[in-house]
Specification:
This protein is mostly helical. It has helices spanning 9-22, 25-33, 35-60, 69-93, 127-161, 169-182, 189-201, 211-215, 220-232, 235-251, 256-281, 292-300, 323-336, 343-359, 365-372, 377-388, 395-404; strands spanning 205-206, 209-210, 285-286, 307-310, 313-316. It is built from 17 helices and five strands. Helix 4 packs antiparallel against helix 5.
């Protein structure tokens, strides 16, 4: 019966986008590895968050965040290991045993990523395309599932530390909410806003293909990464916490865990930026070039922009968001100078650098082109549409090309 399910043209288009853009071992490795710095950042954040939690508990009489970080990490490790075993079983048996509705990072909501890996769930009539759709969907789930389960078990352990039964529906619902937030799959306000923009753009259609789907194939994860970057930026997290207090006075509803996490992220973000300043001062971290001349100088030295030096090799930080952008914000502060007179200018430059690094991600480059291009919005949309044609060139070809020929060529011409 499932094979006869009506599949829309949009579903097929979204599936084709996903296959072309994400069926790439490099993307899959980045997808999996991105959860490591995020988990580390969130665990560090729990220390200041627990301090704020103690203060807030004097008013609410409730605790939500524990100082027992080693205990939570142990529970996370257990959940991670269990998920790895389940993933191996799923791949071997061709099934999907994840029963908590985790869609997978960069899933395309109307495609097959959130569908079962069972062979009866079909987008395409042909076996080859169906197999590719299933393969990329499985790869997306594998990339996130271990981190999701680690966060899920870590939160249940934390709730148990405060005397709550981890087996109740309420505890498990809270653990799912926490895990979705940790893996950038939560429905944040920013994600809702960008989804609204995409839905509006989809009113302009070419057959079954909407303009929004073409220009913004990924929304949920990039929006949630940006949302976390705002929290960790220091000022942003504090401002959101204050706004939450104001809202709580009006509605009578107060999410204590969210409140202390935002404050904890603010303080942690300042520390990560300070670390970025130290790395930049030592020459081990590079932000973006300010001019074409500086870019050429970096290229000649074999140094990439937005990169950190590990050993004798430079590595870009696009896989480590939002931690990567925080480090780069610190690097920009170091470059601009932290004199009292220049503090506001330095902070502004750091914020621009952080967002530039974020929008430099492949999945957000069309959004960046529309709102940050040199022409009118109409001209920028036209340019983004032309660039969107690259979605249908398999990304794995680019990886193979860079492996065969790693030389970066500069096509800039001062007198075009």
């Amino acid at each position: 019966m499932v094979d006869k399910e009506v599949v829309t043209g949009r579903q097929k288009f979204r599936s084709l986008q996903r296959i072309m853009m994400l069926l790439n071992p490099k993307s899959n490795v980045k997808n999996f590895s991105a959860g490591v710095p995020m988990a580390a950042l969130e665990n560090i954040k729990d220390l200041p968050a627990a301090m704020f939690d103690v203060l807030v508990s004097k008013k609410t009489g409730e605790r939500t965040t524990s100082f027992n970080i080693p205990g939570k990490i142990a529970a996370q490790a257990k959940g991670f290991a269990q998920a790895v075993g389940d993933i191996r079983y799923d791949i071997r048996e061709g099934v999907d045993t994840s029963n908590r509705g985790m869609p997978g990072r960069y899933s395309l909501e109307e495609g097959g990523a959130a569908r079962s890996t069972n062979a009866t769930s079909r987008i395409w009539d042909g076996k080859v395309m169906n197999a590719l759709d299933s393969l990329v969907g499985t790869a997306l789930r594998v990339g996130d599932r271990a981190h999701f389960d680690a966060a899920y078990h870590g939160r249940l352990a934390e709730l148990e530390m405060f005397g709550k039964d981890p087996n109740t529906a309420d505890s498990q619902k809270e653990a799912i909410r926490f895990a979705l937030d940790r893996t950038f799959q939560n429905n944040s306000g920013l994600a809702q806003a960008l989804n609204g923009v995409r839905n509006s753009l989809n009113k302009a259609r070419l057959g079954s293909v909407g303009l929004g789907d073409l220009l913004m194939p990924f929304v949920q994860t990039p929006a949630n990464i940006a949302d976390k970057l705002i929290d960790y930026s220091g000022v942003g997290g504090t401002a959101k916490a204050i706004a939450q207090l104001v809202g709580a006075k009006k509605t009578g509803e107060f999410d204590q865990k969210l409140f202390v996490d935002r404050l904890g992220r603010s303080f942690t973000g300042f520390g990560i930026m300070a670390f970025g300043m130290a790395l930049a001062k030592s020459g081990a971290l590079i932000a973006g070039a300010d001019s074409q001349e500086e870019r050429e100088m970096l290229d000649n030295a074999g140094v990439e922009e937005y990169a950190i030096k590990i050993g004798n090799t430079w590595h870009t930080l696009d896989w480590a968001e939002p931690a990567g952008s925080l480090l780069l914000m610190g690097a920009e502060m170091q470059k601009a100078g932290m004199s009292k007179e220049g503090f506001i200018q330095s902070a502004y430059a750091a914020g621009i650098t952080g967002m530039d690094a974020l929008f430099d991600l492949d999945v957000l480059q069309n959004v960046s082109a529309i709102f940050g291009g040199y022409g009118s919005v109409t001209e920028n949309v036209g340019d983004a549409l032309i660039n969107s044609a690259t979605q249908f060139v398999p990304s794995i070809l680019n990886t193979i090309t860079k492996t065969i020929d790693p030389v970066v060529r500069d096509t800039y011409d001062e007198n075009p």
